[in-house]
Amino acid sequence: MEKHGWAQGKFLIDGFPRSFDNMDGWDKVIGDSAEVQFALFFDCSEAVMEARILERGKTSGRADDNAEAIRKRLRTFKQDSVELIASGLPESGQGEV
Q1: Most CB atoms closer than 10 Å: which of 33, 34, 55, 61?
Q2: Domains in the chain, start-ordered, CATH in brackets?
Q3: Whose CA is closest to 29, among 15, 39, 16?
Q4: Is 17 exposed, middle or buried (CB count within 10 Å of its CB: 0-12, 13-18, 19+)?
């Protein structure tokens, strides 16, 4: 972001932070250099997520687009990310779709 002139632009950070540790790292590295204005969370059932990722796996070439890996990622998400999302990050704005 810095390389591309973050002072002049707006950036979408996809899938980050995933945990409070990630957020702490962001704060240590980025600090006040960039303002997080909004967090967006897409909420859908695990069955829908799994079906969509399995469909993507037919053409993505990703070895981790399989049912076992998807379920593991969803467990990790529940353990690490849900609490962060529920904390109201960031204070300036949050949306759920």
Answers
A1: 34
A2: 20-96 (3.40.50.300)
A3: 16
A4: buried
pLDDT 10s digits, 17-46: 888 899 899 889 888 877 777 777 788 899
> Between the CA of residue 33 and those of 16, 28, 38, what are the distances in Å?
17, 10, 16
Rounded to two decimals, the pTM is 0.65
Q: How far apart are CA 41 and CA 94, in angstroms?
A: 8
Please report, to the nearest 10 degrees, the dihedral formed by the alpha carbons of residues 39, 40, 44, 45 taken in order.
Answer: -20
Give alpha helix (H) positions in the chain. Answer: 20-29, 46-60, 67-80, 82-86
Please name which of 43, 47, 31 lies closest in space to residue 82, comparing C-alpha atoms.
43
